[in-house]
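Exercise (ungraded).
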Amino acid sequence: MLAGFQKAYEQEISVNGKEIIQQLLMNAEIAREERIPICQDTGFAVVFIELGQDVRIVGGDFYKAINDGVRKGYAEGYLRKSIVSHPLERENTGDNTPAVIHTKIVPGENLRLIVAPKGGGSENMSAVKMLKPSEGVEGLKKFIVEVVKTAGPNPCPPVVVGVGVGGTFEKAAQLSKEALLRDLGEKSKYSDIAKLEEEILEEINRLGIGPQGLGGKITALAVHIEIYPTHIASLPVAVNLNCHAARHKEAVL
Amino acid sequence: MNRINLTTPLSGDVVDNLRIGQRVSLNGIIYTGRDAAHKRLIEYIDQRKELPFDLKGQVIYYVGPSPARPGRVIGAAGPTTSGRMDLYAPKLYALGLKATIGKGRRSPDVIRAMQQHKGVYLAALGGAAALIARSIKEARVIAYPDLGPEAIYELVVEDFPAIVVNDILGRDLYDESIKLYSDS
């Protein structure tokens, strides 16, 4: 992420934008020194699990263990408790649980856990659309750029743009979140998609929104696209925005 | 770049003269408030109950800070997205609130309310929560502790940095900025 900021600093053309990126670098340094979060929104705890099919979990409840871990981490790390128990009644659970947990069964004997705390401000500016297959690449580009444009200064640009294309309605949304797990700027393994990522990033960075929406070139640091086969009738696309505080950490057991 | 020093509570003259794009440094007491606290403030106003603080000349900072480590004043304390408070803001400006601090766009209703009641909207640097926390010298919860991070805090700030996004003339810094750099 810091390398991303450095590159953004060099590429940014607006004085305001450069100053903001500099302040974000300073912020990261202060956060490290003082052991406080870079952003007060320490997120919804989104946990991706890759469970090796040869692993057998014995005793207790695996999901409860994850939530216990979230509870402990958020308390001991002095992180903000941002979860309400009921979306309409909105009472804070007080310990940042429950987590959102995605589980995938994979070959092997490892258990891989990826924790990706997700901030609300950028999550709120995300969107899913079911395009017509005839809208094709142009429709896809137009929608992604439109989501970033509509979000404007709200999601704390420069943003990372996670995109899921294909699958079903919910598959596209999940892919868009998985796309955010990639290291910043790591290209798609498909050359046509990697090219598309570059083209869309260029288009986004012509919008003029800039760091914090105060004008400039660097509105997005990267566009990551994940794809999946889809139905003959469908072209689902989901755009999940992440602020510049793109945090994730993984462990293999 | 030059900053304009502002001391709270803000006087009408000072606020009237602020213009979009100006950098300001806030000093004195400001109050925190985000979604849940705003909902409750408006309920109190509608029921004619006494508010936890007098709104006249005051500044509300849209923030839900992270908890302070022992011996510290506050945790991370950057701005949250202001648009979620748009529904509530016009009523508060009408009651004498002079400024709000957050990040992101305000609705046409809020911009009109600021013109009508002579208020401003300031943006703080989103995601620079550790940096901003340095300008907060004291913090205490003065209302609604049951709301956790959404409780109302009274903050004493020194040289709290912000930029004027909407002024009393109804202008919008985000609109002006994007025009300068857009080539699409």
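Further reading is listed at the end of the chapter. For now, observe: Chain B is about 25% helix and 25% strand. The domain at 3-181 of chain B is CATH 3.20.130.10 (fumarase).
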